[in-house]
Amino acid sequence: MTDRPDDTAVPRDADELNDAVSELGESDTDRLETVQERNESLEERLPSPDELPRTHGSPGQG
Fold this sequence. Notes:
0% of the residues are buried. The chain has two helices and no strands. The chain is mainly alpha-helical. It has a domain at 14-41.
């Protein structure tokens, strides 16, 4: 379980999943390129380690 809300729509059956994937591009190569572009975009928006807040203690301490 995650604390982050999931904003993506979850397909409920194979037809909905197929429709969601087909929206990424016409061919498998197009779909892979679309996913790669989205991943690169996410990586660009991630903060660098220097930008992350410093915390003290272990993750188990809450």
